[in-house]
Specification:
Layout: E1 3-10, E2 21-27, E3 42-50, E4 56-60, E5 68-73, E6 80-83, H1 89-94, E7 96-100, E8 104-111, E9 118-122, E10 128-132, E11 138-144, E12 150-155, H2 169-172, E13 173-181, E14 188-194
Length: about 210
């Protein structure tokens, strides 16, 4: 066979998803276990196509490479990622099946926050998504998966004159906004959290003579 066929459906139903974008690519970090929502930087694009009205798609096997990944995106659904591997004969025979969950979103305000604070979602495998607050402390995170518990942290911006790479996340962390936040499929949750009271301490350290 020279082609590999697949289908994209909505999770929990047989409803097909038409006009979804299917991308076969090599990622910068190969061999990693990527959570569904984890944005993965494309190193090399191998093949791009869209599903038909019945959710079907076709990829030429000649385009595949070892370590390749598949990404499926459709409006209203959380982005899906999968390790494509190498299309073995049994996979080519039965085809690929992709299930996408309705995406969730989290938005709101960190009360008392200033521009540049970072709201970060962390899940148990260590993956994270971040967004900075605007001048009114507002933020928005979308394209999130449902049913996964997130820890929500608040991070400081790097102090003036300090390179952001030298200011570690541990040093920047100033608050735990939520310990186990779980979103439902298709949910858009609005929140309002109070920012911790912050102060700036300046000084110097000298070696005693």
């Amino acid at each position: 066979d020279t082609e590999l066929r697949g289908v994209v459906r909505a999770a929990g139903s047989e409803a097909s998803i038409g006009n979804a974008e299917v991308l076969l690519f090599i990622a910068w970090s190969s061999g990693s276990s990527w959570p569904l929502y984890q944005p993965t930087e494309v190193k090399q694009e191998l093949e791009r196509t869209r599903t038909d009205s019945e959710g079907g798609f076709v990829l030429p096997i000649a385009s595949w490479r070892r370590g390749a990944m598949l990404r499926v995106q459709a409006p209203g659904f959380a982005t899906g990622y999968a390790s494509a591997g190498w299309p073995a004969a049994e996979v080519a025979e039965r085809g690929l099946e992709f299930s996408l969950q309705p995406s969730a979103a989290l938005s709101g305000t960190v009360v008392g926050a200033t521009k540049g604070l970072t709201v970060t979602l962390h899940e148990t495998h260590g993956a994270s998504l971040s967004v900075e607050t605007d001048p009114e402390g507002r933020f928005m995170l979308d394209d999130l998966p449902a049913g996964i518990p997130f820890e929500v942290r608040l991070l400081l911006p790097a102090p003036e004159g300090v390179d952001d790479e030298d200011f570690t996340r541990r040093e920047r962390r100033v608050g735990l906004l939520a310990e186990a936040l779980v979103l439902e499929p298709g949910e858009h949750r609005l929140v309002a959290w109070n920012a911790p009271q912050l102060c700036v301490v300046r000084g110097s350290v000298r070696v005693a003579e």
